[in-house]
Amino acid sequence: MLAVAVLAAGKGTRMKSALPKVLQPLAGATLVERVLASARNLQPERRLLIVGHQAERVEQQLAPIGGLEFVLQQPQNGTGHAVQQLLPVLQGFQGEVLVLNGDVPLLRAETIESLVNGHRQSGADVTLLTARLEDPTGYGRVFVDADGKVSAIVEHRDCSEEQLSNNLTNAGI
């Protein structure tokens, strides 16, 4: 069994728009609609959206899609806090949980499917998609130990000067 949880609570301050970030339009669909579409082929048993900033507006616009569960994150205290909001909602759920950022509209279905299949084959507790960026400014950094296992994920704003030199970033998947 699979649940897909989309992080859709952010404000999107850098977009300088009255619209919540996930409702920004891109080629005829919102950012979050594109993320949901990229996970459609996985046929998840549950589809959850963690909402916060302008939650009512996000829920109203996305409700017609059907089959979505909305989980409120109040206040918005970052990515980890958003994921924590899923714990009571998914209590008793026996399956995997795929967490996606709601603002990655160019994510391809094939990428998600490959990640999920790789996760299942590895037997890992957690699988994370990362990227090495030439300029990682603004992105959360992922730190791994000698065995390649994640030891920490630190948001850009919380990084020390030394941590900022790490260019392995959280891709939001």
Description:
There is one protein chain. With 173 residues, this protein is α/β, with parallel strands linked by helices. The protein folds into two domains: 2-127, Spore Coat Polysaccharide Biosynthesis Protein SpsA, Chain A, CATH 3.90.550.10; 131-170, no CATH class. Helices cover 25% and strands 25% of the residues. It contains six helices and ten strands; from the N terminus they run βββαβαβααβαβββαβ. It has helices at 31-38, 55-62, 79-84, 86-89, 109-122, 161-164; strands at residues 2-8, 25-26, 29-30, 46-51, 68-72, 96-101, 130-132, 141-144, 150-154, 168-170. Strands 5-4-1-6 form a four-stranded parallel β-sheet. A two-stranded antiparallel ribbon has the order 2-3. A hairpin with a 2-residue loop joins strand 2 (25-26) and strand 3. It is globular and about 45 Å long. 26% of the residues are buried. The mean pLDDT is 92.
